[in-house]
Amino acid sequence: MNTNTTLPDTNRPLGSTGGPWVSDGKKPPATRLRSGRRRSVPHLLLGALLVLVCAGVFLLVSLNSDQRQPVLALAQNVSVGQVLTAQDLKQVNVAADPGVSVMDASQAASVVGKTMSTSLSAGALLTPDAVGGSGFPTAGQALAALSLKSGQFPPEVAPGSHVSVVFVPSQAGAAVESPPSPDQSTVWPAVVTSVTSLPDQQITVISVQLGEAAARQIAAVPAGQLSVVLVSGGGQ
Prior knowledge:
By secondary structure, the chain is α+β, with helices and mostly antiparallel strands. The protein folds into 3 domains: 25-66; 69-132, Antifreeze-like/N-acetylneuraminic acid synthase C-terminal domain (Type Iii Antifreeze Protein Isoform Hplc 12), CATH 3.90.1210; 141-171 and 180-231, Beta Barrel (Elongation Factor Tu (Ef-tu), domain 3). Helix content is 22%, strand content 24%. The protein contains 3 helices and 9 strands, in the order αββαββββββαβ. A 5-stranded antiparallel sheet has the order 5-8-7-6-9. A two-stranded antiparallel sheet has the order 1-2. The protein has a two-stranded antiparallel ribbon with strand order 3-4. The protein is elongated and about 95 Å long. The termini are far apart.
């Protein structure tokens, strides 16, 4: 009796069918999948790190926001001598250092009706020094009134303007008046607090704030011998 025994084909490439390797020598898909998973681990770690960084930034911003406080700022320009109204004020949130002088928003009612002791632009923070009480003008300052005719002051002069009050000697033919003494100035820096026109008299009364000594000197100058020059802020 003949028995047929089938011997394995030794000429067939290893792994061609059913073997552990495919004919091209590459690993089967299951093996490549496991390798891909190993390569994705660094990406997962990087993603987790980014999440932690974003959470830390959010926490830092939140802490800084919590340190802000509501304070008073100006909603529009105000001039020295102007009486504050509720419409002049607005609330803003700022993170101010302990040494910065600001006014808490809860003080709004107490500053309405007070007189400004300086000129400030819209958006500026209100400070206690900027608001005068019933003692306006502030200590060491005084208000002086100038009766001026057309040509003795620029028409652009308005409350808050920085000006120089200048002594002008009498014209020829007019009564000669004594100028300020040699130890007195003939030019006084000041800030305009109000401008009032008197059409019937063709006179404009300009009130200015300046030092007490200078105010007394100006008050002693006869009418018609003073002029006003508009200067930049802080100029003389």
